[in-house]
Amino acid sequence: MANKEQTMKSLLLDKYIYEALVSSTGESNLEKVIEDLLLEALESKVERYGREILKFEQKYGMSFNEFDKSWIAGQTEERHSYEVESDFIDWEMLEMEKKELIVTLATLKGKGRK
User: C-alpha distances in angstroms, 56 versus 29, 51, 53, 72?
Assistant: First the structure.
């Protein structure tokens, strides 16, 4: 397998931010600290999006895929009401964002963390 090219970037941190990162994590390897914080933030977003998606699933009694099929078939009640259209857009966005975050997480976790 060929080596992937890595792009190294410098990051200038405020002294107080640096000290807070080191003291709060006990870790002086800031690359690892930042990676861990990023993973935690992404996982937290996935969980939050999952909770918000669950609210729509409970409200409409179906998954987004089922709701989308119902919408396309013209079987969604009050399809053109503000509330239902707004829910559709928000639900679709949450589903797309969650999928993108899961791919990003898998990529980061699979990159051979040290």
Answer: 41, 9, 5, 18
